[in-house]
Amino acid sequence: MRVIEPWVAEPLQRFLSESSARLVLLTTSSGQVVAQHGFTRALDVMSASALGAAIMASTEELGRLTASGASRALSHQGGTRGLFLSAFDLPHGRWIGLVVYDRDSSLGLVRLFFDRLVQELLAAAPPVGPAREVLAADFEHELNASLRSLFGR
Amino acid sequence: MSNDDIRVLTAQLAADPSSLVFLPLGEALRRRGQLGAAEKIAMAGLMRYPELADAHDLLARVLGDRGELERAFDEWDIALRLDGRHAGAHKGIGFLYFVAGDLAQALEHLEAAHAADPKADGVAAAVARVREALDTESGRAGVADAGRPVSEAAAKPVSPSPLPDGPSVAGAAIFAGLEGAQDGLLLLDGSGLRLGGGLTAPDGRAVGDAVAAHLAGVFRDASRATRLLSLGAWTSVAAETADANLFLCAPTPDSLLLLVRDSSVPIGRLALQAERASEAARRWLERPA
Amino acid sequence: MKTDIVGSLESVTRVRGVRGAMVVSAEEGLVVAESSMEGIDGAAVAALTAGVVAKLGRATEAAGRTTPAFVHLQAEGGALLAVPAPGDLLVVAVTDAEVNVGLVRLELRHAAEHLA
């Protein structure tokens, strides 16, 4: 498990332990990675975070168009693995959680412990500092720093 | 013993139900194969004399003849608690250990039986036979012990427990004397590694190790479920399949015990068997290294 | 159909000592229907019970046996009982520690039959 924000570590570790999830990715709604577990390549992390953010944005838009309300969680069951995608709000903004699980777990267990993860993140989140202007160069620098941190390099 | 002798003993017992004549009468009926009658006589005697080691020994012999080895073991165990030098109980338990393959324990009890009653029928020969088997097992020839006079065996009371070390004998030794000692009783640690016992699938495959690995997951999930649902610590998991009943419990915080029996054995009975097996497992796990 | 399911569950919850009953999707561990689950986290019961039953099923499969037709998880302060039902469902009861397990099992089986 690798985290950018240290206060995420303990709640995420508990989630991993209880849910038996195989892959976990926490990102901001813009796709910036906050924490990951189980991914072995930076490229996969970047792709998954971008796709997850895009899927959540698409479903929210679909919800608006159909007046069915914004969808907070999606799930997909594959042959041997399942996927769970959920957005949640922290004081820092909206985050997205992507969880992949197999036979050792279930959608019900992932949802159960994901709800608890969100509550624990809410409780552990530090106060929000003043917003700062993000420059393109800063963003790329931060992304690279994040990826290095996430992969222990 | 002739029919007339049995009639006389029966009449004596009828005239004085508190008489100890139930002992020779029960034994005579047992030798004649009248096990139902022998058991009734033994049970009636035990109700009057629950502290009499000979009465427990009689019942154990009847149960042993009926193939109820687990109950027989229990009765001989009780006899030894009442009289640590009871020759019959040592002989009986020694026999059960021999059947279970625990030769070391078998020898210890048979030697104790011989020490307590040197004239007991067949015990000296049984001791020699078990020693020979042990020597063969260890590959030693002319072992010093083979020449040791039997009468030098310790006269002190020998308890049926603790059970021996070694993965090579742990399988049967942990549950020696209990029903299912060879198959249907499985002891594992919290990581899913088999510690002892064995399990065979209906098609004859040995499946103990595979089942142990899966049970670690059950252990973890059961603990988590009861904890998160505020049901307290879990105590057991029972399951019924089409062809078997299963019972899972934890003899110690770091071990699991599984019993598997044919579906004709009610789960309530499995729970009782599990208690006895758990005791045996605890003794083995907590023995000094 | 939902009314029928809930009706079946009510016969389970009428047994003394039963705190709640539900129908659960076995694979996903999600609630399908529930009855009298006051004070009990139904989603948690569904997910956790389905997990135990699934793992036990894999153990019995490894033992060369069929999948469990009845599961009873006993704890110091209560118990979970589950019976499989058609459509990859489970009928689950949450009970007090002291309960007539035989009767609950019977009612769970009746409820499971009604789901066919």
The mean pLDDT of chain A is 84
Q: Please give the largest β-sheet of chain A.
A: 6 strands, antiparallel
Radius of gyration of chain A equals 15 Å
Fraction of residues in helix of chain A: 40-55%
| Text of the CATH class of chain A | Alpha Beta
Distance between the termini of chain B: 50 Å
CATH class of the largest domain in chain B: Alpha Beta
Based on secondary structure, the structural category of chain B is: alpha+beta
How many strand units of chain B?
5
As laid out across the biggest beta sheet of chain B, the strand order is 2-1-5-4-3
CATH superfamily of the largest domain in chain B: Dynein light chain 2a, cytoplasmic
**Number of helical segments of chain A?**
4
- Strand line-up in the sheet with most strands of chain A: 1-3-2-6-5-4
What is the overall silhouette of chain A?
globular
Task: Note down, in words, how this protein is organized.
The complex is a heterotrimer of chains A (about 150), B (about 290) and C (about 120). By secondary structure, chain A is of the alpha+beta class. Chain A is about 45% helix and about 25% strand. Chain A has a single domain, classed as Beta-Lactamase. Chain A has helices spanning about 10-20, 40-65, 105-125, 135-150, and strands at about 1-5, 25-30, 35, 75, 80-90, 95-100. In chain A, strand 4 and strand 5 (about 80-90) form a beta hairpin. Chain A is globular. Chain B has 3 domains: about 1-85, Tetratricopeptide repeat domain (Serine Threonine Protein Phosphatase 5, Tetratricopeptide repeat); about 85-160, no CATH class; about 165-285, Dynein light chain 2a, cytoplasmic (Beta-Lactamase). Chain B has 11 helices and 5 strands. In chain B, strands 2-1-5-4-3 form a 5-stranded antiparallel sheet, with helices on both faces. In chain B, helix 1 (about 5-15) runs antiparallel to helix 2, helix 3 (about 35-50) packs antiparallel against helix 4 and helix 5 runs antiparallel to helix 6 (about 85-100). The termini of chain B are far apart. By secondary structure, chain C is an alpha+beta fold. Chain C has a single domain (about 1-115), classed as Dynein light chain 2a, cytoplasmic (Beta-Lactamase). Helix content of chain C is about 40%, strand content about 30%. Chain C has 3 helices and 5 strands. Chain C has helices at about 1-15, 40-60, 100-115, and strands spanning about 20-25, 30-35, 70-75, 80-85, 90-95. A 5-stranded antiparallel sheet of chain C has the order 2-1-5-4-3, with helices on both faces. Chain C starts with a helix and ends with a helix. Chains B and C meet through helix 10 and strand 3 of B and helix 2, strand 3 and strand 4 of C.
